[in-house]
Backbone:
């Protein structure tokens, strides 16, 4: 087993700046940061279809590892998942004023992927 240090980059858009002149006030993203930390900081990631999942679960139950089961642990799926998390937070908080239109997930200098899509509910034409 080995681990990686995952990093994320986010791109945001807004229909108009907030009262302080921000697209997104980064200090307001604590809930997203906490979700990222809970999912990826010192955790053991495994695909839901991993044939050894029962063994990983036993090790988790014994406290030997902090298991996180994901649909797909690859960078492509991870960037899409994190994009969804960011947009869930922004939509619920800003009522469609802001969105995350791109997320890049990296685990090292040679392995990264991005997911880019404007959420259906976000339109600059409103």
Residues:
């Amino acid at each position: 087993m080995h681990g990686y240090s995952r990093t994320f980059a986010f791109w945001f858009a807004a229909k108009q700046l907030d009262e302080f002149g921000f697209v997104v006030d980064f200090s307001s993203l604590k809930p997203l940061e906490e979700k990222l930390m809970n999912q990826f900081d010192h955790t053991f990631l495994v695909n839901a279809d991993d044939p050894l999942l029962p063994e990983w679960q036993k090790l988790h139950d014994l406290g030997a590892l902090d298991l996180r089961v994901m649909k797909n642990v690859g960078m492509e799926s991870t960037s899409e998942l994190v994009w969804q998390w960011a947009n869930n937070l922004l939509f619920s908080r800003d009522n469609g004023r802001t969105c995350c239109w791109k997320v890049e997930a990296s685990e090292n200098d040679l392995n990264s992927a991005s997911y880019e899509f404007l959420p259906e509910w976000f339109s600059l034409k409103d």
About this structure: The chain has one domain: 7-18+28-116. The mean pLDDT is 93.
